[in-house]
Amino acid sequence: MAHTPAERARFKKDITTLLRDAVHVELTTIPLYLYSLCSIIGAPRVKNLDPDVMDGLRAKAKIAVVVRQEMLHLALAGNILTSIDSGPRLYLKSAIPTYGEDETILHSKIPMKLEPCKKDNLECFLRIEAPYIEPPSLSAEDESVNVGTSKQAFRAPLQYKTEQLPDFNSIGEFYTTLERMILDCGSYVDFIDKDLQYTSQEFFGDLMTQVVDDKTAHDAIKTIIDQGEGSVGVEDAHYQMFLELYQKRTDWGCYPVPSSPHAEDFKKTPFVYQLALASNASYCYLLITLEKTWKVADPVHRRALITNTHAIMVDVLKPVADILVQQPQTPTKPNLNGAPPFEFYPTSQGDDPKDIDKAATELHAAIIARLKEAIKNASTEIQRAQIKPLESIIFSAERIPWPKST
């Protein structure tokens, strides 16, 4: 039976809202996991490592796999959204997640906090990634892990809230609802803009799906569900990986990083403050690069954006974070180190930039300027030891200017 224009419009509005929330869900988890990852003490270039450091490196590698998959999920959700409506907005103040004791962005029962990779942090990750269809059936070994105060920590209903949608009991329920809508969407929506979507040649190889119909839309959402919401015992599911880390959580050490920091917290330690601002600018430069890629069809322009995406993550954002977490907040808080805040970095374009090209150009300049200011403010021996690494990061940043349209 043919649907009326009103029915089609309502369906499109509802599924678009869900898809934008899916993008926000994935965007929220990436800083959570990155912060935990960079808090772990590790020294990959040192030979004859202490066993605790080796365990830390293994933990970092496992979390890095999850982060990579969350980036894939973000790209897949963005592809589906682009195929039905328009690409995600990532660089605007209202879209960038915030973290702290009172923040419950995904589930009202789970505080969304940036924390070191310890017991409470891993418990949070387990609750985020817990499967939805059935409560986990724990083995005797898993029972001994004692997450939270009892095994009910796994079974407690989780609340996902948005202003536009009814409450969901879990992120798994949210994705199940979205999957059902996608299975029905072929008769309601027209699929568009294949040339604006990430391809397997550009991002994540065969795991990437371009969405051209309801079947490919379902393929994309199934990848997200299977990797993120996999059943207990599925090796590559995020839940299973975090459960394994939880069981080994005493095997590594963490830097004394603060909980959910803001760049302004470091203002009395100028070196750390400038690095935190550089980190924020780098994070936002990454987001605006991802956002722009869903707006560009020209292959040459897309290639430049995607090349920048990788370089921002590997050559700028990660090494700045690695330096930050090793820097004491002297003299005000010598027992706490710096850390990447993952905050909105403003430009002259305001909180909701209409000209993202101008905003991106300013963000790129801000990365370099803040790193240079950090070098100028290096006053302690620990800080001065980072001058050469920072000069190397500046060199890398200078090589990723904002690509111009061809």
TrEMBL record:
Domain Iminophenyl-pyruvate dimer synthase: 19-247
Coiled-coil boundaries: none
InterPro entries (alphabetical): Ferritin-like (IPR012347), VioB/RebD_dom (IPR026820)
Annotated PANTHER family: MEMBRANE PROTEIN (PTHR34400:SF4), PTHR34400
Designated name of the protein: Iminophenyl-pyruvate dimer synthase domain-containing protein
Provenance organism: Scleroderma citrinum Foug A
